[in-house]
Amino acid sequence: MLDVLIHIGNLLLGINFILFFIKMRKISRAILVFTLYLLSILIIQITSVYLRSQSTNNLYLSHYYFILQFIFLSIFYLEIINNSFQRKVIKISIPICLISLSIQYYFNEDLLVKFNLFEIFITSFLIIIFSMFHFYNILNEKRKYYYLNTGILLYLFGSTVLFISGNLITRLDLAPSKIVWILNSFLYIVYQFFILLEWREIFLNKEKSNYDK
User: What are the pLDDT digits (tens) for 150-192?
Assistant: First the structure.
């Protein structure tokens, strides 16, 4: 079942990337950034599946996943958030987060081959904060990027709870370990559906001009 969910999630990711790639020049810079995010994650996911099929350790790819996700989504929120204070928080958070992780890896290279709990928490937590910024901003406005923002918040909140026990998961026997990964794969599929809903809202909705920046 786990393999089926993983393949479904990756298939939806691939479809979403193609859909956004085809249209990305017809909309805002935010969509261009998000399309690049989808591409980077797609490459990581394909590589991860291949290494797994070869019975090769692929845990180190998690660092690329979380860091690139943090960078691209942070830039995405910079593009769609206009509040000056919130933008300052994002701009300050990006270098602080990356510098902190660089220092941590410099002093503890062993973290490069396993889940880094601090990395998972800090990168996901900051994006969740940025997501909440956007939700607050659209309370009395048109729901711009509503589905996309909802998907990001739901997925990161849920997956962070699961990934935060990543190092422990690798020490568990197969059954409980699989349950955790199945739940995460299901969350990922839900996330991809929200992305698909956003694509429909932007490019098929008659009021798509509201998304132009």
Answer: 999 999 999 888 877 655 655 555 445 677 778 888 999 999 9
| Helix pair angle (146-163, 117-137), 10° resolution | 160
Q: How far apart are CA 93 and CA 91, in angstroms?
A: 6
Q: What is the pLDDT of residues 33-48, one digit of tens each?
A: 999 999 999 999 999 9
d(CA 97, CA 117): 14
Tens of pLDDT, residues 115-128 = 788 999 999 999 99
Q: CA 70, CA 123: separation in Å to the nearest integer?
A: 6
- Look at residues 183, 151, 197, 203 and name the one whose alpha carbon lies nearest to residue 21: 203
Query: Taking the alpha carbons of 38, 39, 45, 49 in that order, is the dihedral positive or negative?
Result: positive
Least Cα distance to 192 among 130, 148, 129 occurs for 148
Highest mean pLDDT among 25-39, 88-102, 159-173: 88-102
Residue 201 dihedral angles phi and psi, to the nearest 5°: -65, -40
**CA 144 to chain CA centroid, nearest Å:** 19
